[in-house]
Design brief:
The chain has 695 residues and is of the alpha+beta class. The protein is 52% helix and 11% strand. The two termini are 62 Å apart.
């Protein structure tokens, strides 16, 4: 590998060479601000009569073909494409005196006919496929056929505006070109196979221009693969096209969570790369797996119609309610469906059960911080063996009813669900509120679709939100302040409408008249339109009717939660007052994720590993400071293993944890770590047996 300073124009726009942007590169996506900065740099270089450094470009020289030297641009495509667009804008606005020189920069030429001057070889730049179509139209002067939204089109037009403005100021095309000729780059030329383009690329971009997770994974899978074009066309492009920029990074993060574990987006690429390398799979198998699960994700976010209307409507509900943490679990369930291990009827019942579970949790107000861990490990906890899939639904129901019964992730029962339905502020979560009201009106089996996010359907308060409304103060009476504060946003006072602005602060008789005239929500408004007055009594009566109906619509499976057999293992919380001497740790649940262990020391190590995944920077800082729990003489966490009596390293991180402690001390240490991470004690539960039972 060599690195030399070069004049960009002299090097990259020399004759008889062509630069190709490979398929693993992201699309051309420079914005106008980037183009303006480049243009101003060129003008300033001319004004100040001095060179200007643009940065580094990385190229790989390929075999000569058709009389041309061919290069692959590993890094620098955004700058190079932009300069090419600027040269084209200058060419189109130049007089005859400048056109010949500019033409020589834009196009390869041959007076001796020693290479094929076809359209294939004429241009000195070949962008990736998604940009190349617009680029070819531009270079063929077919402006009317170009996509007006393409960055190629937009930035070319912007460069034309900048060039014309400078000409109006008295600059010439030759002045601007003179400035371009003063721009310098450092060219890093790689020679295969001596230099690894992937390694060079990652080092250059480790602090660089906001490469997204998808960009990094694409480069990793395609850059060094001999079949990069095939992999791109067969797997990557269909996946990228289907998901689009808005979802593809979210999908990759969800896929990594599903396959590997919870990770911050900033760490996701390195985690994925380490995992992929350890799997010893070809790049084709890795990208094929990504494409396979992406079709599920497309359905999850409403980007495909590969499944029935009934299945898609449940998925729309999860997405509309922003309950995306269930996706890692659904990846496995949908895989079972694709492999014909379950049929559509079972799949629908699984979706209905977990939507019911989701709604109950949301209404009850169970914190959602444990859901991500729960759903990531839930499938393998339920289906520990293939035999457990023979009665798919029963395995799910038994696990949810029994193994989660004594944790914060337990399925809320009808009694607590109904109490909260009647008393909670449902309006604070608009999507949840609108969805519950929609179920009440239509039933869960018929209304699961766009109502969750439909902007045309709004929530109506019978007693209005305007607390200073004189008519309503008189209507409610002396306890108006109490009634208003307690019931305004509760189920009994809420309905749906398509004309919220028409009702707003109307008095009750006028609202009833409007509802009778226009509302299509008959069930919701049945016990509104038959009333002469609206007060605490009528609100409570309506809440009772609606909550009873919702409990009926959201019935749990028959016998769910009945005859639960208590485990032989005892469950413990960190705040319990207990002597654990003589007990053996067998498992723990942290933020919903279950881990089985053989000892309390293993429980500590696995817990710290989860803390590292949750926030590695925080744990690193603690270890650097030789972190101790209260009253301890030996550090619990350190980067120097010699400071510990019995050191266990956390996943090859260079962070060590002290494990030479009693059961009681380890429980206290875990408690102090929970406090350090600002976590609730309820987020950790562990299970024990007596040592005699375990032997």
């Amino acid at each position: 590998m060599k690195a030399e300073p070069e004049k960009l124009i002299d090097l990259m726009f020399d004759n008889k060479r062509q630069y190709q942007i490979p398929v693993y590169q992201r699309n051309y996506d420079w914005k106008k601000d980037n183009c303006l900065e480049l243009f101003n740099d060129a003008v300033a270089a001319y004004d100040n009569e001095r060179t200007h450094f643009l940065g580094t470009v990385v190229q790989v020289q390929k075999d000569e073909e058709g009389g041309l030297k061919h290069f692959i641009i590993v890094d620098g495509q955004q700058r190079m494409t932009s300069i090419y667009l600027l040269l084209k804008a200058m060419y189109d606005n130049a007089g005859d005196a400048n056109k010949k020189e500019l033409e020589g920069l834009l196009f390869n030429s041959s007076s001796s006919h020693d290479f094929d001057k076809s359209e294939k070889n004429k241009l000195k730049l070949k962008p990736i496929k998604s940009d190349n179509e617009q680029f070819l139209l531009l270079m063929s002067d077919k402006y009317d056929q170009m996509d007006k939204t393409s960055n190629i089109t937009v930035n070319y037009g912007y460069f034309c505006e900048l060039v014309k403005a400078k000409i109006d100021e008295g600059y010439s095309i030759n002045n601007i070109l003179s400035g371009l000729k003063k721009l310098e780059i450092v060219m890093i030329s790689l020679k295969e196979p001596n230099d690894d383009p992937q390694v060079i690329f990652e080092r250059i971009n480790s602090t660089g221009e906001d490469l997204k997770l998808a960009d990094l994974i694409r480069n990793y899978l395609l850059m060094t693969d001999a079949n990069m074009d095939y992999l791109f066309e067969e797997y990557w492009l269909p996946m990228e096209t289907a998901l689009g920029k808005s979802e593809i990074n979210k999908y990759f993060l969800m896929y990594i969570t599903f396959k590997i574990g919870e990770v911050k987006e900033s760490k996701a690429y390195q985690v994925y790369k380490k995992w992929a390398d350890s799997e010893n799979l070809s790049h084709e198998l890795l990208i094929k797996d990504l494409k396979y699960y992406s079709k599920f994700y497309q359905a999850f976010v409403g980007f495909s119609n590969n499944y029935s209307k009934e299945i898609n409507s449940y998925l729309t509900a999860f997405h509309g309610l922003n309950q995306t943490t269930i996706y890692p679990f659904l990846f496995s369930v949908f895989n079972d469906y694709e492999e014909n291990k379950i049929d559509e009827e079972i799949l629908l019942q699984v979706l209905q059960f977990y939507l019911n579970y989701t709604l109950r949790r949301m209404v009850i107000g169970v914190p959602s911080n444990s859901l991500r861990g729960l759903y990531r490990s839930l499938y393998r906890r339920i289906f520990k063996t293939d035999e457990s899939k023979h009665d798919y639904l029963r395995s799910i129901y038994n696990f949810m009813a029994k193994e989660l019964a004594y944790t914060k992730d337990a399925v809320p029962n009808d009694t607590s669900f109904k109490e909260r339905l009647m008393s909670e502020n449902l309006y604070k979560n608009r999507s949840l509120c609108r969805y519950i009201l929609s179920i009440l009106e239509n039933g869960i089996n018929t209304i699961r679709e766009s109502v969750v996010i439909d902007s045309d359907i709004s929530i109506e308060h019978i007693m209005p939100q305007n607390k200073d409304n004189v008519w309503w103060r008189a209507e409610i009476g002396n306890n108006y302040e109490i009634v208003y504060d307690r019931y305004l946003h509760t189920l009994g006072n809420l309905s749906l409408t398509g004309y919220n602005s028409e009702l707003s602060d109307l008095d009750f008789p006028s609202k009833v008249s409007k509802i009778k005239e226009k509302s299509k929500f008959e069930f919701l408004n049945r016990d509104v339109i038959d009333k002469q007055h609206w007060n605490e009594k009528t609100i409570n009566a309506r809440a009772e009717r609606l909550s009873s109906k919702l409990i009926s619509d959201l019935m749990l499976p028959e016998n769910f939660g009945k005859n639960i057999v208590q485990y032989s293992e005892n469950s413990h919380h960190l705040d319990d007052i207990c002597d654990y001497t003589g007990l053996k740790a067998v498992s723990f649940i942290f933020l919903g994720e279950n881990r089985e262990v053989d000892s309390v020391k293993e429980m500590l190590v696995k817990f710290v590993e989860l803390l590292y995944a949750l926030d590695s920077d925080k744990l690193q800082i603690m270890a650097n400071a030789d972190w101790k729990s209260a009253n301890a003489s030996v550090p619990l966490l350190t980067c120097d293993a010699s400071k510990l009596r019995s050191a266990s390293e956390i996943d090859n991180t260079g962070i060590f944890v002290e494990t030479n402690r009693s059961f009681n001390d380890i429980v206290r240490s875990i408690k102090y770590l929970m406090i350090a991470y600002d976590l609730s004690m309820d987020d950790f539960v562990f299970y024990t047996t007596s040592k005699e039972q375990s032997e």
